[in-house]
Predict the 3D structure of the following.
Amino acid sequence: MARFGFIHGKLDIKLLILYILARVSAPIDFATLTDLCMCDEGVDYFLYAEAVPELLDSGHITQDKEHYAITDKGRRACADGESSLSPVIRQRCDQRLAPLNAALKRQTQVRGHVEELPDETYRVCLDLDDDHGSLFSLSLLASTREDGEQIVQRFVDHPDRIYNGVLGVLLTDGQQKGGTA
């Protein structure tokens, strides 16, 4: 059966994997890597499934638990060979990577976790960063782990609303709103 598309064979698939891993902003799992690599009719899943462990064995990529990342050796090989990938494929990959990279960046910039304290209360720690560093850190107590997890989830879902709400309260003159001194 004839294959159509721009990817032809395992070497092209390996270059495609390296191209994607060189441009993703954080390590990704196998399912995400697979989805990104299936951007062309010429990608044969079985050749792809063989290429990933071969790249691991050769030291071009690494695996930490379930996540894959490119090594310096892989970056050099990608830089040397990426021009042999079709510009159409590179453009497709870049378009598919943009929303993923935005989501990965958001995950690194918006964080929260719950810690159990000795007195059976829970500390909720919330952090919001931008490209220059920390914008906002907040630590508060919750009476149950469930409450703490709910606070974390709401913060992760709406960090801008919480940040702006706190700033609004802190920067508003209480006298103007009918407050007392």
Summary: The chain has a mean pLDDT of 92. The two ends are 81 Å apart (CA to CA). The helical segments are 10-23, 30-37, 45-58, 72-81, 87-109, 145-157, 159-171. DSSP finds seven helices and six strands in the chain.
